[in-house]
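Submission sheet (multi-component)
Chains listed below:
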Amino acid sequence: MSRPACALWVSALLFLSGDGLASPFQPGTEPPAPEPPESNLIEDLEVPPQFDGAMPRGELVPHHYPAQRAAKVVEHYLNTRYGSPYRRVHLHQVHKAGLEDLGQAGNKYHLEISLKEVVSNTDLGPCSAEVLFSGEQDQRAPQVQCSCEGLKKLDTKAEEEALFQKLNSSDSLLSGSNIPDSYGHVAPEMKPMWKLGAAAASFVMLNESNEGTLYNMAQVANFTQLETENDQLRFKYHILLHEMITQEILHWKLLATWSPAGGVSVSQTELQPKCHHCETASAIEIPEATPSPTSAS
Amino acid sequence: MMIPAGLAFVILCAQIADCSTLHVSMPEANPRNYDYTKYHPMSEISDWMKKVVAENPGLVSSAVYGETFEGRNITYLKIGLGSGGPERKAIWMDCGIHAREWIAPAFCQWFVKEILQRYKTDEKLNEMLTNMDFYVTPVLNVDGYMYSWVNEGTRLWRKSRSTPPEGCSCHGVDLNRNFNANWGTVGVSRDCCSNTYCGTGPASEREAQAVTAFVGSRVEQILCFLTIHSAGQLLLMPYGHPNILPPNYDELKALGQAAAAAMKAVHGMEYRVGTSPEILYANSGSSRDWARLMGIPYSYTFELRDTGEFGHLLPEDQIQPACEEAFEGARYIIAYVHDRAFHNRTQIGGAGAAGPFLATVLASCIASTYLL
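Outcome: structure written.
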């Protein structure tokens, strides 16, 4: 290598390493924080969820839990309005968040978020939303307002019509279970039923949400198609919700109706007793078993 | 920065006689035909561990360091290139403390595979294995993991499989609420039927005792403690209690953010970084908190994919991308703690590969200038 080339390499080296050399972490310059107590004699402390992070009023840190939980509620709300067998909105990021304390009226979150539509893998771009969690006296579901231009560009009419015709005119009534299965697999013909279940679940999740919860649908345990009524397809669903803060799996049964024109609606929602048989002592020895083959019938 | 680095690499490569030595995979180091992109039941994982040890003498050993409630072995793989006594430094990684988080054991296996494939040709990795041991526990909560494989109804089991305590009727303790770290104070339930039941007392559970005994007797040696979970795409720092911060909070935050950036660079996935009460929820009795309280300076919980579309039921076709990004995050942290211990270097923010690459450039440049 000639000297000019070497000089080139050295300057390249300095350019490339400049980033790293510029700001080495210097722990010694940080003011010493108080040592954490070494013992475990912290008093029993029931910290109400909304005060966990000593949340200041006003501006919220977007990636901290209060803004994240409120943004999740927007996701549930949008899925009750726009969800379908071919449309599922998913929270992507929270960009900005603010909190307005309305006293007895509750807490209102102002959010700038971005969303994705996961069936078509479409970036829905930025949205602004408001979420009002009512005060303690009031047991109402959160109230959401959302403006999301990106939703308008979604076009799933063709697929929805095709599915509607197929399920409406079929001789047999469709049913399925364990969607996704233990391996996360969803059979292609079950994907729309999975997404429809998620849209239906969103009604429950929206209703059940508050500042101390974070819901996702874990699985469609099973579903059964019922006879069409009033030009709406009807399904009984048994869904499993995962609530993050308690880490519980909640079983809900519901009746979902759907048509391309009418969207999804939900009735007869019923929380099932906790599934202790999934969790209580079993008389059988645990074998080195693999799960029984799943059937999306 | 990476584009000029990549270009420089290509040009440099052209001047080196044999570029192919820079990236060679070592399939012989790994058991043949083991599919790391599938979920494996415990029996297959145990067989895999035995093979990995048998096929890598002098590099991999294993040991049983405790027993589960139902009497099963809790086993780690110890990977390292040195011989050394009780002074030898180490890093700790455990997976599968929560039964249903299947991507976590899948990641521990992937992590081992990557190390075995790369260590002969990856200078940095080689150096780290020479200086430190890697203790990897592919499945900590063996009873719970096996229970989650029994049938579709048990797939979402989380806890251990200990029998109900007096006066209550449900099995299992949330092992990540059972450690002696502000035990029983916040983010737990005293109801044994709850999924965050913290047990009858701190480290009442055998699985927690195993980690406590092994890691607890080596606190001076262990440079970092990584515990792998799903889901949520988070890097959680100590502590779970909202009123306490670790003394090296700023450093842990900066390091976590750099690791998250390294993870995002792989497949574009965002991982949020912070303490549990900041970004998720308050909790107590976690193994991460216990490790930090014991004095292990770098302690993180990795929450892998996803953010709710599949949750714990992450599809097998996501195992590879999830593991690829998690590997970069874990590697980043491990390289940092290694360099801090062995080179007194606390640089955060440069790309991990830049160091040895740049050193090679400088060395070859100087050598060729003055030798030719």
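Remark: Strands of chain A lie at 58-60, 89-101, 107-117, 122-133, 143-147, 175-179, 215-229, 232-243, 248-259, 263-271.
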